[in-house]
């Protein structure tokens, strides 16, 4: 015959086992469309740069450096995830929080709901938090009331405060602009003289051609002129010498 203490111990163990089974069944039954629990666990091991890189892969974004929409969405989800991580959310809570961020942004992007409609959606999602007996699908009853208040405050300063900007971004996509500049660089031609050719803005080309680098024809004429002058000087010198010799004769 079991003693009262042994019976109560068995009952407590049985209740504890039932509670653990309920929690495990609850986690197993929850499926998130945006981030799975496995993906959340992988993101928790990364620093902020690693989270950003993996988030780009999850979203299948490859042009975050040039595409404004992709860059904004990556920043939206990375900031939200890091905020939840700093609040010491569990993997389950982070997955639920990221699902909430995704649903609100998807409402804005695809369904084009107004701010008031998204606030109503948030209110419905938050219903049941703090009441463990409410287990309706899509509820976030694994958060505490204080955590729910923090989430609402975060959404106020992130999504809702900039709601009009997000609306504008999705409604009026930016045109891709290709910005380029063409430059034509003219190199200096090899100089025929021992000196480099002057720059265009240095001295007038006529001055350079006349004095610094005269044409070859002019140089040839100059040499011929010098030869003629030398010949004339030689003739004059010979005539002068002949006259002196005549004067010196007795």
Automatic annotation (TrEMBL):
Record-linked InterPro entries: CLAMP (IPR032727)
Pfam families, alphabetized: CLAMP (PF14769)
Lineage: superkingdom: Eukaryota
Taxonomic lineage from the root: Eukaryota, Metazoa, Chordata, Craniata, Vertebrata
Keyword set, alphabetical order: Coiled coil
Organism, as annotated: Pelobates cultripes
Coiled coil, from the record: 98-125
Descriptive protein name: Ciliary-associated calcium-binding coiled-coil protein 1
UniProt feature, compositional bias: Polar residues: 1-17
Keyword Transferase: no
């Amino acid at each position: 015959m079991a003693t009262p203490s042994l019976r109560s111990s068995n009952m407590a163990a049985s209740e504890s086992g039932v509670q653990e089974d309920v929690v495990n069944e609850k986690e197993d039954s929850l499926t998130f469309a945006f981030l799975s629990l496995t993906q959340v666990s992988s993101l928790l091991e990364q620093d902020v740069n690693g989270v950003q890189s993996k988030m780009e892969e999850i979203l299948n974004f490859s042009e975050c450096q040039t595409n404004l929409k992709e860059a904004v969405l990556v920043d939206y989800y990375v900031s939200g995830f890091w905020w939840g991580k700093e609040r010491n959310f569990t993997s389950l809570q982070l997955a639920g929080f990221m699902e909430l961020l995704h649903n609100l942004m998807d409402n804005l992007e695809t369904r084009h709901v107004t701010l008031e409609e998204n606030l109503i959606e948030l209110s419905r999602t938050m219903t049941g938090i703090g009441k463990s007996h409410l287990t309706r699908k899509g509820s976030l009853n694994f958060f505490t009331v204080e955590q729910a208040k923090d989430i609402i405050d975060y959404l106020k300063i992130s999504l809702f405060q900039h709601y009009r900007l997000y609306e504008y971004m999705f409604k009026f996509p930016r045109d891709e602009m290709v910005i380029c500049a063409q430059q034509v660089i003219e190199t200096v031609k090899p100089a025929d003289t021992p000196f480099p050719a002057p720059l265009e803005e240095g001295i007038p080309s006529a001055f350079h051609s006349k004095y610094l680098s005269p044409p070859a024809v002019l140089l040839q004429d100059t040499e011929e002129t010098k030869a003629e002058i030398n010949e004339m000087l030689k003739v004059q010198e010979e005539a002068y010498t002949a006259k002196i010799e005549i004067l010196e004769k007795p």
